[in-house]
Amino acid sequence: MPIGAAAGTPQYSGNYVPTYFSKRMVVELYEATCLKEVTNNNYLDELKKGGDAVIARTLPDITIRERAKNGEIIIENLDNPPVTVSIDHEKYFSFVIDRVDEFQSDLDLQGRWAEHGGKKMNINIETAIFADIYADASIYNAGLTAGKQTAGYNLGVSGTPFVVTKTNAYDKTVDCNSCLDEQFAEDNGRFIVVPPAMANLYQKGDLKDANVYKDGEPVAKNGWMGTMPLTGMKVYKVNTLTAVTDGAYTCFHVLFGQKEGTCYASQLNELKIGEDVKIRGKVCSGFNDFGYKVVKEELLGDFYCRFVNADD
Fold this sequence. Notes:
This protein has helices spanning 35-38, 44-48, 99-104, 109-133, 169-182, 196-204, and strands at 53-56, 83-86, 89-98, 162-164, 190-194, 224-227, 234-237, 243-246, 249-258, 262-276, 281-294, 300-307. By secondary structure, it is of the alpha+beta class. It has a single domain (30-312), classed as Alpha-Beta Complex (phage-related protein like fold). It is flat.
């Protein structure tokens, strides 16, 4: 909108005064994604060779018994069903650029738009996976009586979400970590994925004075905030977690676990450029063929909660 001219005087804007288009495009606000940080790709090499699935063999449970002298030995037949990870999803985007627009534009439309589409695809995939896998968490890592050994941790359920405040945000993270302890999860690779509202409470509570951030580094593109003191859990802040309306409240399924619990494999990530002769244009399409599966439910947890941003 040009500066208005006084009444009775000419307005040259759009006539003698040209309008210029900047070569800088308006910055798009992308959500941080952390999917590759909280899952494993143990079977990617096999899937890269082709095929639509890989069968992962798992270790059976072995019973340890005590024998008295002269006592008979009980022999077990060991067996454990394998886990199948399938490439059963495909996401894509596709757009066309008319040849005239491509030639006359002062911007690399194809490159800019393809990059934009790729980032949006990553966000879409992570949001869809997070919305699905929380239901596969172990029953001992969710609910009002979480904890395989103690049943002593309230991680909320539908209708009764746990209320997180700045006073208890760190304590509940410790509870999540303790659920993993009771499942004998390895310390390395533990994580918790939180929405911005919970990150806000971390930063307002006792953690604001703690050395949580590694070497003072800012939040990375993958949403990494730092490692939670004493727990060893890496904290990721994202906008891709599942939010639900529960009564009058907005609640979240906060994910936590150890990355060996969930497998994610992107088998074919492809950008194709072709010509559409009907409209004399260039078609740009991006495809991502992928699969995912919770392969060990003991290593995934669901903390169902809502947030109160107020002084206690």
